[in-house]
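Predict structure. Chain length: 244.
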Amino acid sequence: MRTGHTIPLVAGACLTAAMAVAASHWGAAAIAQRLEAQSRQALASANAPGVTARFLIRQWPTRHPTLEGGEKLNESARTRAAVAVAAIPGVGGVHWADGTSLGIVTPATRPLHCQDDVDALLHARTIRFEEASSAIDPRSLDLVNEVATALRPCLGSVIAIIGHTDSSGNERRNIALSRERAEAVREALIERGIPEEGLRASGIGSSRPVNGLDSNDPANRRIEFSVIEKVPLRPTPVDAPGPR
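Prediction complete.
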């Protein structure tokens, strides 16, 4: 084949691939928009005020929505909302932004070794923060590195990062500070290569002290990790970006 004919052929192939990617994204976006509209109706029927379903991950449409809002709902109402969205045809696993989830896999596939590895790291050491701050103490950065390494073999799992405080001070502020600290750890793990879509940060203040400790014991100021589930990494027509 002559060179003069090769350039137009290559350009045509690139244009075709680009059009395929655009068509794939537009089609996926249309499906996600339809699922989002159906989820609004489902949530209204489930009497879940303030709850929304987000069908985007890093601007790519997905069948696995994240539910946001509804912090004032009780557990029964939250479950009802999640079940209503999960029942929509075409919807995959449903996750709450705070880390709880519904319907991806059975507990039998839970990657316990990641949980055990992280628990072992945090058994004698704690991720510490500057006093009354969400800034991670520089002396704890090595531990954050080790936690990231322990979590890396289980990428695809949903990892809940839970902040705790002791009971000293105002509990509303304790809850906010524990959430800010969990978010700080989440950002640190993202910087170390852990995908952000698999990390859920929440703060629960002093409501769950360490077993055997008084609620005001400083040892209750801690970060815990919960490896919730292993998500199958099989893309659906909505999740796949198409040809590159």
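Summary: Residues 54 and 66 are 5 Å apart (CA to CA).
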